[in-house]
Design a protein that fits this description.
This protein is of the alpha/beta class. The chain contains 29 helices and 19 strands. The strands form four sheets. It has an eight-stranded mixed beta sheet with strand order 12-11-10-13-14-15-16-17, with helices on both faces. Bound molecules: 3-hydroxybutanoyl-coenzyme A and 1,4-dihydronicotinamide adenine dinucleotide.
């Protein structure tokens, strides 16, 4: 159990007092840390030998913010504001010495210091918006007084970290000091402040930048309009904007009051609870109970990619982006050329948008080697297969690879639906086979499902997870089942959507509800984007579904200018009378009379069916924990983070409500629809998915 004394210290270096905090892992501002800072600052102020104070942290970082686990619990003394007041009102200059990340409440403490020095690798920022919050300790009032309202708006609504150089240029850091010499440099800086008799500069008293924008309503209206799409559905960005407006138009103390009110609203709301849950879920997802961190991993220095199509090319880019060479194998030169052209075009487009330089494009292309022979993969540490979705083709590829790759190499399949256990039968070293299911476009989408087969070794799992982290993905472990975690739930969603389409809801009615709920698009717009003809062929089509009927008249999605929707030349969609006619034809065939289906029914049948499928996935041990399912749906399918994922949403609505509604919809849910026993059990016990251990 830590104490204020244990997490803080006060030492003297001549006339400079050094207040130091040591509270691993990230020096979050827990109760004891707040108490420790307050105690040491007061001691330093009372100590006649001390003339100035350096405030510094031990370990990997400066204060990383409020302790997120304390939100939602009864507040404990001392409040962060009391600590800040002690610093800001200190009669001796306080210099913040910053390394690592000075974030949120941590940066707000730094903003109360009279001066700030930092090493070049340090970063600062107010990332509260990512937790559905706003900087609640004066950050929204002090920041614009230094950087001006425009930059402050960007910083608080994006939550981006700002590097030391940029922070220095904006006036947030007063001096950049040599890396590794923070303590002595900060002490030297404090001595200079004393020698030059510099004032006790309080950010709260700076007025020039906010004064200049006072009454400028256009500034805020423009910012809102420019970002409307990005902020859609989120509450926190608007609250952050309101606070900056307050900083510009109100006296400092009134602005603080406004900030406090809005912070309290957000912190007690569902959106912030969801986003805080996701913060921890994103960290939890890497932890696999029976694959400890000490599990040996293969050091992946070279990657082989079989197939340079849509997925293979995108996957290869991830590795080139972090400097890992990839050999891409195709069966035909044309396919190889086409694959490389697409990769180059993607990189060049990124360069055109200014995100990388043309030099980076060439460097990354140089890491990619084309080949027509699997033999060239003999020295790879990891080989990922992304050939056609056909079991025989995949088995043939793996049988060949088995004889070629070096001992210990990991073999991975990017299959989206095939059984990894069956694929593994094609190789002698079954335990090196793992699923690595990327999402399209693979160079953009953050999700990676790592699929564990019956024989997959712990080392293969640990390697796939570590590789995912290295290339910037968020990896979730899934067991083997059709569709794994993500697509299995997608399928459950689609069943309900299609059922409702045959009861009277048009595709756009269903899509609208899903879009309004916060996803980027509904199931039918998504089908149009992906192509309706995935898995469809002219030879075998039987006019058995609306989708088949659409493909038969060459409405195969956006690429043909029409699918469920009609598209104009700018790819804007509008409801299609042709589709409507086909839907009605199928409705009649099914013997249904169209009925009005409420938005509420659309949402509940779709979302509750997804939650139900998630519960089955959990019960079968396909997912380790409910929050992993949420991570999959947020990062792979655009589930709005402010709703925390389908499982969290179920908890929010109440699992008893979910079960009650599913029962009430009864046979409409489909003849094969069954309610998950786990879901029923949790509902009956009044529990949530989050209560499962
Ligand atoms: N509160 C509680 N726990 C925290 C925490 C915080 N603010 N920040 C990190 N942690 C925990 C993590 O959950 C993790 O725990 P685990 O080891 O048990 O999984 C551990 O600390 C290490 O964190 P990371 O794995 O994320 O470590 P990294 O080195 O990769 O990243 C970091 C460090 C950049 C500081 C990152 O942890 C981070 O972004 N933290 C959150 C920062 C933040 O959002 N601060 C604002 C908080 S809200 C606030 O301050 C409100 C105020 O305005 C009133
Ligand atoms: P694609 O058709 O674009 O690419 C497949 C490539 O593999 C083609 O270029 C083909 O020439 C090549 N190929 C076929 N047999 C080969 C062999 N024996 N050796 C070397 N190359 C061979 O297909 P896509 O979309 O890239 O899909 C690949 C795999 O990824 C499939 O298993 C698919 O299910 C999976 N997947 C696809 C997603 C998508 O959205 N397209 C998403 C996630 C997974």
């Amino acid at each position: 159990m830590s104490t204020p004394e244990a997490v803080s210290s006060l030492t003297l270096d001549g006339e400079i007092a050094i207040v130091s905090i040591n509270h691993p892992p990230v020096n979050a501002l827990s109760t004891h840390v707040r108490a420790g800072i307050l105690m040491r600052i007061n001691e330093a102020v009372a100590n006649d030998a001390a003339k100035a104070i350096v405030f510094i942290c031990e370990g990997r970082t400066f204060l990383a913010g409020a302790d997120i686990t304390e939100f939602g619990k009864p507040p404990r003394e001392p409040a962060l504001r009391t600590v800040q007041d002690a610093i800001e009102n200190s009669t001796k200059p306080v210099v913040a010495a910053i390394h690592g990340t000075s974030l949120g409440g941590g940066f707000e403490v730094a903003l109360c210091c009279h001066y700030r020095v930092a090493v070049p690798s340090a970063k600062c920022g107010l990332p509260e918006v990512k937790l559905g919050l706003l900087p609640g300790a004066g950050g929204t009032q002090r920041l614009p007084r230094i950087v001006g309202p425009e930059k402050a708006l960007e910083m608080v609504t994006s939550g981006q970290h700002v590097g030391a150089k940029a922070a220095h240029a904006m006036g947030l850091f007063d001096e950049i000091v040599p890396e590794g010499q923070l303590r002595e440099s900060a002490i030297a800086f404090a001595r200079r402040v004393l020698a030059e008799n510099r004032p006790l500069r309080k950010v709260r008293d700076l007025d020039e930048k906010v004064q200049a924008a006072r009454g400028n309503t256009a500034l805020f209206a423009d910012f809102r309009a420019k970002n409307a799409r990005k902020f859609r559905g989120f509450e926190a960005p608007e609250a952050n904007i309101k606070c900056i407006e307050a900083a510009v138009n109100m006296p400092f103390d009134d602005g603080l009051k406004r900030e406090r009110e809005l912070f309290m609203q957000l912190v007690s709301g569902v959106q912030s609870a969801a986003q805080r849950y996701v913060f921890f879920a994103e960290r939890q997802v890497w932890k696999i109970p029976d694959v400890p961190e000490s599990t040996p991993v293969v050091d992946v220095k070279k990657v082989g990619m079989v197939g340079a199509g849509t997925m293979g090319g995108g996957i290869a880019m991830n590795f080139a982006n972090v400097g890992i060479p990839v050999t891409l194998v195709e069966t035909r030169q044309e396919a190889l050329d086409r694959g490389f052209q697409v990769i180059r075009r993607n990189y060049e487009n990124t360069a055109k948008r200014g995100r990388i330089t043309m030099d980076d494009v060439e460097k990354r292309m140089a890491l990619l080697t084309p080949s027509l022979s699997l033999d060239d993969l003999a020295d790879c540490d990891l080989v990922i297969e992304a050939v056609f979705e056909n079991m025989d083709v995949k088995k043939t590829v793996f049988a060949k690879l088995d004889a070629i790759v070096k001992p210990g190499a990991i073999l991975a399949s990017n299959t989206s639906a095939l059984n990894i256990n069956e694929i593994a039968t094609a190789v002698s070293k079954h335990d090196g086979i793992v699923g690595m299911h990327f999402f399209s476009p693979a160079n953009v989408m953050r999700l990676l499902e790592v699929v564990r087969g019956d024989a997959t070794s712990k080392s293969a799992i640990a390697t796939a997870m570590a590789v995912g982290k290295k290339i910037g993905k968020i990896a979730a472990l899934s067991g083997v089942c059709p569709g794994f975690i993500g697509n299995r739930i997608l399928y459950a969603r689609r069943l309900q959507a299609d059922a409702m389409m045959l009861e009277g809801a048009m595709p756009w009615d269903i899509d609208d509800v899903i879009y309004e709920f916060g996803l980027p698009m509904g199931p039918y717009a998504m089908s149009d984007l992906a192509g309706l003809d995935i898995g469809w062929s002219k030879e075998t089509t039987r006019h058995a579904t609306v989708r088949e009927a659409l493909c038969e008249i060459d409405r195969r999605g956006q690429k043909t200018g029409a699918g469920y929707y009609d598209y104009d030349e700018k790819r804007n969609k509008k409801p299609s009378p042709v589709t409507e006619g086909i839907v009605r034809e199928f409705m009649e065939k099914a013997g249904n009379t169209a009925r009005e289906i409420s938005k509420e029914e659309i949402l509940e049948r779709i979302v509750f069916a997804m939650i139900n499928e998630g519960a089955k996935i959990l019960d079968e041990g396909i997912a380790i924990r409910a929050s992993d399912i949420d991570i999959v749906w947020i990062n792979g399918y655009g589930w709005p983070v402010y709703r925390g994922g389908p499982m969290f949403y179920g908890d929010t609505v109440g699992l008893d409500t979910v079960v009650g509604k599913l029962k009430a919809y009864g046979s409409k849910m489909g003849a094969d629809f069954t309610i998950s026993p786990l879901l029923e059990k949790l509902a009956a016990e009044g529990k949530r998915f989050q209560d499962m251990k």
